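To the wet lab folks,

You asked to see what we're planning to order before we commit. Fair enough. Below is the target structure as tokens, and below that is the sequence we designed to fit it. If anything looks off to you, flag it before the synthesis order goes out.
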């Protein structure tokens, strides 16, 4: 028998808020986290805008002696995990730690550490390389450090699938609970890749917005005048539990994860497959996994990156799959405010879905000014929040390499 999986805690570090309360307030007020790059001089780069974390002090969450031994992508994961665990109310002395696990992914990992230590190598030689270089850069270290902090001895692994990472991580963690391999999982995604090399790489691909004179309007998913995505950073973490495990300890349940679909485009390293065939199939599989008809879906948190091909392809996929029901489905992209958090995107967007299910308030797509006929006339919840009770929400994530991942959440009754 497949077991039911619920969410009992959420936490985040994002460009528009370092707690879920702050994140939600920004969503409700259409607040953009985009600005001019401050981490380095962007003068020589084609794009000069990004979405950075603000007012974050890792020492609030991590022993100051340990902070310097960890890459920022781990800092973000540990901070978001602390918030999620606090909300979950889990008593570590009262649960079976052998059946509690961690699955936190990242798209790029410790690139800040790699760049810094390469400078040390060039300037001072190999004897001055940090002995912590390797454990700082390894992508599995977010999961590793979170498991050590809470003593979780169950399944512990990492997913890396570019921009689909956060969604894949939650889906795989859900499966571990569904099939009895764990009762509790800390899961999600984290990213801290705004460095000269990381940022420059996306510039070289011509993937980033160059709306440098209007940073707040640079991320504009589905708008006709979109010109690229805005690179962001942060983390989103969910605590998943088996339903009876959560009920037996009297946990407050935030929502239920009921469906997961994943496919490959098998088409191109960066471009989506024509007509979004891989995306269509992943969405269909997720709804089938949830045991629902397509017309049960009320809302879709789109991948919606603000790039020309992604947005029109995703819109086509939604229209092709849902048919006439697509007119009744609200579709918005929270990346219009957060920018694209890469490996953390799907996890933060899952938190957004849960909050919308709880409150009956839909988050808008900001900066939506001019309709694009190629985006299929969908309802993108433009610019203003909307009160609408929903029961089922879908979250889409599509990554370079042709990775497609979709989750379905349901309001818990």
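Sequence we intend to order:
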């Amino acid at each position: 028998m497949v077991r039911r999986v619920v969410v009992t805690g959420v936490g985040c570090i994002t460009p528009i808020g370092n707690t879920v309360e702050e994140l939600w307030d920004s969503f409700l007020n259409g607040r953009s986290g985009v600005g001019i790059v401050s981490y380095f001089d962007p003068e020589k780069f084609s794009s000069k805008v990004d979405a950075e974390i603000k007012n974050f002090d890792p020492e609030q969450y991590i022993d100051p002696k340990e902070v310097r031994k960890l890459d920022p992508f781990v800092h973000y994961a540990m901070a978001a995990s602390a918030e999620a665990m606090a909300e979950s109310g889990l008593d570590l002395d009262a649960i079976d730690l052998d059946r509690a696990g961690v699955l936190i992914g990242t798209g790029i990992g410790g690139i800040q550490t790699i760049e810094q230590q390469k400078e040390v190598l060039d300037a001072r030689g190999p004897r001055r390389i940090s002995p912590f270089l390797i454990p700082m850069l390894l992508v599995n270290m977010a999961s590793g450090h979170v498991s050590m902090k809470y003593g979780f001895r169950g399944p512990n692994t990492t997913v890396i699938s570019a921009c689909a990472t956060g969604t894949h991580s939650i889906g795989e963690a859900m499966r571990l609970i569904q099939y009895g391999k764990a009762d509790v999982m800390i899961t999600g995604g984290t990213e801290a890749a705004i460095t000269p090399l990381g940022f420059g790489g996306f510039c070289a691909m011509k993937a980033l917005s160059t709306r440098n004179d209007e940073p707040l309007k640079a991320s504009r998913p589905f708008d006709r005048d979109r010109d690229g995505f805005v690179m962001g950073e942060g983390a989103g973490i969910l605590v998943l539990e088996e339903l009876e495990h959560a009920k037996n300890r009297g946990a407050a349940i935030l929502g239920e994860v009921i469906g997961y679909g994943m496919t490959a485009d098998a088409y191109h390293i960066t471009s989506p497959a024509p007509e979004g065939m891989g995306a269509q199939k992943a969405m269909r599989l997720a709804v089938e996994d949830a045991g629902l008809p397509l017309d049960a879906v009320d809302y879709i948190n789109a991948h919606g990156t603000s790039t020309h091909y992604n947005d029109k392809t995703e819109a086509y996929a939604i229209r092709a799959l849902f048919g006439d029901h697509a007119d009744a489905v609200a579709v918005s992209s929270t990346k219009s405010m957060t920018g694209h958090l890469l490996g953390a995107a799907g996890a933060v967007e899952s938190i957004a879905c849960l909050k919308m299910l709880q409150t009956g308030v839909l988050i808008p797509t900001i900066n939506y000014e001019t309709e694009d006929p190629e985006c299929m006339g969908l309802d993108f919840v433009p610019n203003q929040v909307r009160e609408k009770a929903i029961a089922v929400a879908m979250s889409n994530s599509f990554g370079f390499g042709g990775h497609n991942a979709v989750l379905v959440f349901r309001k818990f009754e």
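Structural context that might help your review: The two ends are 21 Å apart (CA to CA). Residues 72-88 form the longest helix (17 residues).

Thanks,
Computational group
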